Amino acid sequence: QVQLVESGGGLVQAGGSLRLSCAASGRTFSSYDMGWFRQAPGKEREPVVTQWRGGTTYYADSVKGRFTISRDNAKNTAYLQMNSLKPEDTAVYYCAARSAATMKYEYWGQGTQVTVSS
Question: Rounded distance, CA 55 to CA 10, Å?
């Protein structure tokens, strides 16, 4: 079992930056793939980035070059650095953990709101 808690959301002007954190507790954090997802009002949840435990990373085209995922296994924390934010990045952002055994995102945080004003 893994518990995830996001933080770092907020209100920022277009062009600004935010860093989201995802603190994990429970079983070995380093053994999980980590992902960030977002859900905007009236839209379905969409993947933002996935990072395999070995480091391979996949970004959504909409955030490539602007967002960066990282993780500190010693602190059991994953991060999402978001730069050059746009109003269309406004959403609730969720982190999630996926085990190699299931290859499904079984563990989710509660979400953190990111609002980008124009």
Answer: 28
